[in-house]
Amino acid sequence: MQLGRDFVKALHQIEEEKGLPVGIITSSLEAALISAYRKHRGGNQNVEVNLDLDREEISLFEVRRVVAEGVDPDTEMSLTEARSLGYHDVDPGDVVRIEVFPEGFGRIAAQTARQVIIQRLKDAERQVIFDEFADKIGDLVTGVIFKTEGEHVLVRLNERTEAILPREERIVGESYPPGERFKFFLLDVRRTTRGPRIVVSRTHPGLLRRLLEVEVPEIAEGVVEIRNIVRESGTRSKVAVLSMDANVDPVGACVGPKGARIKAVGGELGDERMDIIIWSADPLQYIRNALSPAKVVRVEPSLEADRAARVFVRPDQLSLAIGKAGQNVRLAARLTGWKIDIKVLEPERMPTLQDLFEDLIKGAPKELWEDREK
């Protein structure tokens, strides 16, 4: 059967424009035609299909084994039938290939070819999308809100790619109106029967890390290193940093002139408040730093439990150390990996005249002290 010059030309055009090798299409088409032929004949024949693009031809062969008796009409042929068809030198056990020209199969072949090419183009495009984003897991991506479907917000990353923002990856209280542009952390890319499933996040600590790398040149260059990040997304986060250069203040570098850098990052996260603290190899000093902005008087390791510490603060610093609903101490504990118990350290006070008088009475003879009590 003739393929036609236009068909062959279309295959090569697909190869050039879509980057889909002709060999992949032809091998898929051959497999599809075998299935179509069996359906057309209504059997389970052994079939070979050969596509010759140079000659613009397609050939179909039924492959049958020669047997002496007990013939399976789909896959076998009797010795007598084989010799009547001109195969005079065959014996039982030999295989013959019979070219077939089924009536009306040309139309079926054309439809099959169209379906195979369309499916292969879809598969190739899905593979391109998967390859493009699978290498970007953990990176910062920008997308436009497309629509909301059930529990998911759909985000358009480019003209042909959409991602999912699940409910658990959204910042509490943040709205996602269609057309609004956001930055996201690329959380996961997986193959599915419907194409790549791309998941993005607005709550992952990695989003804050990537935004800081963009806004703070010292982090991008490796002069300042982020050692740990904890977030309660949308409200507050803590970032532990360390300078690789003694002349560079890591906190100042992150905050930027007049707080410009930290404001830019917070603005991308719904004005999330950020505490930038200095990481320390000394766990007690690290705990002290992590409770910023509270001023800590003393930190002591607890003898009752491992990785637990008692932190002493003045009464006026207690609410700041604990934070609203315990948020500051909770984030500090997550950042350092230590259990933190906040204690109030009562301030020392000067003795009053009453204190001195009572001390004098208590130091007087017992009889005088008893008379005073009467």
Question: Can you offer a commentary on this structure?
Answer:
- The chain is α+β, with helices and mostly antiparallel strands and 374 residues long.
- Helix content is 38%, strand content 28%.
- It is built from 13 helices and 15 strands.
- The strands form four sheets. The protein has a five-stranded antiparallel sheet with strand order 7-6-5-8-9.
- A hairpin with a 2-residue loop joins strand 5 (140-149) and strand 6 (152-158).
- Helix 2 packs across helix 4 (105-134) and helix 5 runs antiparallel to helix 8.
- The chain starts with a helix and ends with a helix.
- The mean pLDDT is 86.
Fold topology:
Layout: H1 5-18, H2 22-41, E1 47-52, E2 57-67, E3 76-78, H3 79-84, E4 95-100, H4 105-134, E5 140-149, E6 152-158, E7 161-166, E8 181-190, E9 197-201, H5 205-215, H6 217-220, E10 224-232, E11 236-243, H7 250-255, H8 260-268, E12 273-278, H9 283-290, E13 298-301, E14 308-313, H10 318-322, H11 327-336, E15 339-344, H12 353-363, H13 366-373
Parallel strand pairs: 2-3, 11-12, 14-15
Antiparallel strand pairs: 1-2, 2-4, 5-6, 5-8, 6-7, 8-9, 10-11, 13-14
Helix pairs in contact: 2-4, 5-8, 9-11
Number of DSSP strand runs? 15
Helical residue percent?
25-40%
- End-to-end Cα distance, whole Å, is 129 Å
Our count of helices gives 13
Order of adjacent strands in the largest pleated sheet: 7-6-5-8-9
Low-confidence stretches: none
Main β-sheet description = 5 strands, antiparallel
Structural class: alpha+beta
Portion in strands: 25-35%
Radius of gyration equals 39 Å
Large-scale geometry:
elongated
pLDDT average, as an integer?
A: 86
Instruction: Write down the secondary-structure element order.
Output: HHEEEHEHEEEEEHHEEHHEHEEHHEHH
